[in-house]
Amino acid sequence: MTKENIKEQIRQAFDHRVAVRVYNEDEISHEDMETILDTAWLSPSSVGLEGWRFVVLDRTHIADLAPKLKEVAWGAAPQLDTASHFVLLLAEKNARYDSQTMKQSLIRRGFTEKTDLESRLERYRSFQEQDMKIADNPRALFDWTAKQTYIALGNMMTAASLMGIDSCPIEGFNYDEVNTILAQEDIIDPSKEGIASMVSFGYRLKDPKHPRSRKPRQEVITWLD
Prior knowledge:
Layout: H1 3-16, H2 30-41, E1 52-57, H3 59-70, H4 77-82, E2 85-92, H5 100-108, H6 114-131, H7 138-162, E3 166-170, H8 175-184, E4 193-202, H9 217-220
Antiparallel strand pairs: 1-2, 2-4, 3-4
């Protein structure tokens, strides 16, 4: 396959992708979902932290949770009725430079020597305290890990579209209420993580009523002279 073929496939995938809210009855195969999930697992994250978790719901689990979620997730109601799968994107809380999570992420990446480990943690201390100014703000720390999950979200949706699978990212819900439901269902430990977003997957029942629109490309993309 040539580079031109690959570029054409990428463009076709992005032309095909729209936010699909109503799906047909076809179910995504387990193997195809695993491929989509691999792109989340392998996504990059700030300082290699991987401060996330991806919880997968098939139609059985969606049906179990839908009655509770519909009451607090207005943006997910049609998808909860028809989607083949949902993925809940969870972000870690309290990922400070001196947390066990940060230390383990470095060890996982090969920083096992004491001096190397301490040097890297000191760099992250400066990053969080001086550059981002988030080290002593629990909400800011959560927002930092939550926004990283959107890298994985985009990769999953792109991979799905390349495979002819539709998706819809979802933020339309009460975050506190959804976290309460997930904690009650033993899906999350609310002291350690929280919901960042959701995404539904399936096969569109029909094409969207309204065509996709975008700002003019020249207003969005700027090449510096």
